[in-house]
Design brief:
Layout lengths: L4 H9 L3 E2 L8 E2 L13 H13 L5 H8 L7 H13 L3 E6 L2 E6 L3 H14 L4 H11 L2 H14 L1
Antiparallel strand pairs: 1-2, 3-4
Helix pairs in contact: 2-4, 3-4
């Protein structure tokens, strides 16, 4: 079964390439090209921030109420962004009356760690990349990292 136009577009957004095999939904891992990493658009990032900040399950109306303090948005725009984030696997949803309520799959910190891992995977020399990362950290973060590494042993 071939992917439809919208499904193919969704795989490109996620940084995935449809597989040449014909199995349903099969995708190959993203390439090492940084331009192919999944990204959040500006509005997607703002919606994720609202979901993380509020916690729990939020309807599109509740997300809209949080975001309209910054600028006017249409209800349908917020619904579209929530569906996109759900399709990307960043949100889970459940029926709440006539609408869906959405909840983040990962915490903000888990998402950040995931993104850091994706970026590290792009490096040809992981040790060098980690070395530069640690050098760029502030002293307090380096102390915390040492503490965490001792606990992990």
């Amino acid at each position: 079964m071939q992917l439809g136009r919208r499904a193919r577009a969704g795989t490109r957004v996620l940084g995935l390439v449809p597989s040449k095999r014909r199995s349903v939904g099969a995708v190959t891992p993203p390439s090492r090209d940084p331009s192919r990493l999944p990204r959040l658009g500006e509005l997607e990032a703002r919606v994720m921030e609202a979901v993380w900040d509020r916690g729990g399950w939020l309807t599109p109306r509740e997300v809209l109420d949080v975001l309209t303090t910054e600028r006017e948005l249409a209800y349908t725009t917020v619904m579209t962004i929530l569906v996109r984030l759900w399709r990307k696997g960043l949100l889970e949803r459940r029926k709440d009356g006539r609408a869906f309520a959405y909840h983040a799959v990962q915490s903000r910190e888990e998402w950040t760690a995931h993104r850091m891992g994706e970026l590290l995977a792009l490096s040809n020399d992981r040790a060098e990349a980690l070395s530069h990362f640690v050098e760029a950290m502030g002293q307090a973060d380096r102390v915390q990292l040492r503490r965490l590494l001792r606990i992990d042993r």
